[in-house]
Amino acid sequence: MAIRGGGALAHTVLAALPPALLAWLSTVTNRALAFPLAAPSRRSRPVGRARGPAGPARAARWALVVLLALAAGGCGRQNRVWPGGVSGELPDQEVSDFALTETEQGTPSWKLYARYAATYNARNVVVARAVRVDFFDEKGRKSSELTAREGEIQKTTRDMTARGNVVLQTVEGTRMSTEELRFMNREQRIVAPPTQLVRVERAGDTLTGYGFESDPALKHFEFKSNVKAVVRSNSPGGILGPGGGKK
């Protein structure tokens, strides 16, 4: 189909049309061009009615105008994907550099930081990206730090679920890694799903297994099944030595 006028925009828009729609438009336009417009007649015709060869040409022109308008409108529309939301769900509020603090009698229990957070009131959750959580002991001293690709916080209970490259590092040198875990705020317990592999490392020793539970400082933890150990250190500070943490 040959197009005169319209410039680069017309060619760009038409190039974006589906092949079936472009073929139909080409057929309509070619039929219209096959009927040259007749010379104006001196006899007046009722306004609003098209007769003779002008009808197909007019239909082609209107079809082209409508298609260009629809295509141009579609070209300017961008679909945004909202993190953490189900299909069609939009956040009620979005913030950057998000921070949340939980205290116990004025002493911080933990502090959460995130590069981005979105609130979904219908589900009563906050979905965060690039998450870091600092945990504190009874005296307000930092005991461990958790990082994850994303997190979901229940607004009422302050329970949290961390997903994606989850790492919990204590100030004493114990490191736990997995892909998903849940922090229960009231119980101050960390629990991994029973199907999720967990790895704990300290002073060259490594434990892996399933059904992991612990306190945030990794002082007392346990595996429920399929536990494997690799021991490279005989020092008391090893993961299997006194104070190593395994229950």
Strands, helices and their partners?
Blueprint: H1 7-15, H2 19-33, H3 54-75, E1 93-104, E2 107-120, E3 125-136, E4 142-154, E5 160-170, E6 175-184, E7 189-191, E8 198-202, E9 205-210, E10 213-214, E11 221-222, E12 225-230
Antiparallel strand pairs: 1-2, 2-3, 3-4, 4-5, 5-6, 6-7, 6-8, 7-10, 8-9, 9-12, 10-11
Helix pairs in contact: 2-3
What does this structure look like?
- This protein has 247 residues and is of the alpha+beta class.
- The chain is globular.
- Strands 1, 2, 3, 4, 5, 6, 7, 8, 9, 10, 11 and 12 form a 12-stranded antiparallel beta sheet that branches.
- The chain has helices at residues 7-15, 19-33, 54-75, and strands at 93-104, 107-120, 125-136, 142-154, 160-170, 175-184, 189-191, 198-202, 205-210, 213-214, 221-222, 225-230.
- The chain has 2 domains: 7-36 and 53-72, no CATH class; 93-230, Sandwich (lipopolysaccharide transport protein A fold), CATH 2.60.450.
- The termini are far apart.
- The model is unreliable at 2-10, 32-54 and 62-84 (pLDDT under 50).
The main β sheet shows up as: 12 strands, antiparallel
* Number of DSSP-assigned strands: 12
Q: Strand-residue fraction?
A: 35-45%
CATH class of the largest domain, please? Mainly Beta
- At CATH level 2, the architecture of the largest domain is Sandwich
